[in-house]
Design a protein that fits this description.
The protein has three helices and two strands. With 61 residues, it is mainly alpha-helical. It holds the Pfam family adh_short.
């Protein structure tokens, strides 16, 4: 959804992006490497968006 709503948020110079991940990234779980890798990607994407978009009035958590 982020790529769909981001242009409007940038134009408005305000917005909130909220992503959801799980504790599998922090703790790890047997036979869940694929899940942890995917959620880890979500976390890094969110942090990157926060750094890049924060000065423009958009927060990402």
């Amino acid at each position: 959804m982020t790529p769909l709503v981001l242009p409007g948020r940038v134009a408005a110079q305000w917005g909130r992006i909220i992503d959801i991940a799980s504790s599998a990234v922090q703790a790890g779980a047997k036979n869940m490497a694929h899940h942890a890798a995917c959620k880890g990607g979500v976390i890094v994407l969110t942090r990157t968006l926060a750094v890049g978009l924060g000065p423009g009035g958009i927060t990402a958590t």
